[in-house]
Amino acid sequence: MARKIPKILKNFYVLSSLIFVVWIIFLDGNDLIIQYGRRQRLEKLEQEKVYFEQEIKKVAREQEALSTDSQAIERFAREKFFLKKPNEDVYVIEEEQSELEK
Q1: What is the secondary structure of 51-86 as a DSSP string?
Q2: For labelling, which of 12, 54, 57, 70 has a CA lying 20 to 30 Å from the CA of 1?
Q3: What are the domain boundaries of the chain?
Q4: How far, in Å, CA of 46 to CA of 30, rounded?
Q5: End-to-end alpha-carbon separation of the chain, Å?
Q6: Residues 56 and 63 sit within 8 Å (Cβ to Cβ)
Q7: How far is CA 2 from the centre of its chain?
Q8: Rounded to the nearest 10 degrees, how much is the dihedral formed by the CA atoms of 19, 22, 23, 27?
Q9: What is the pLDDT along the chain (102 residues), one digit of tens a residue?
């Protein structure tokens, strides 16, 4: 009992189009799977871009404050470099990270 091939699949244009679609979806160097991965990577990079732009603005504000305010310079030196005044003790308290944050 031989199976008959549907008449529509015997059409050269339909068969060529079907082969082309399969090629584009699965076999091409820029197939849909690769395009999906690239789209995910692009979204991640755009989120990182927003984050770093915010960080740049934050650093610019700190830099402006340090260039104009002597109290800001002192606070910065104390926080970042653990500088102290004479006859003063500095205690550094570090918070432990929970298992979920690691």
Answers
A1: HHHHHHHHHHHHHHHHHH-HHHHHHHHHHHH----T
A2: 12
A3: 7-81
A4: 21
A5: 65
A6: no
A7: 56
A8: -140
A9: 568 877 877 788 888 999 998 888 888 888 888 899 999 999 999 999 999 999 999 999 989 988 888 888 888 888 888 778 888 887 778 888 776 665
CA 26/CA 33 separation, integer angstroms: 8
Looking at residue 101, its pLDDT comes to: 60
* Number of residues in the chain: 102
* Residue located via tokens 């755009």: 46
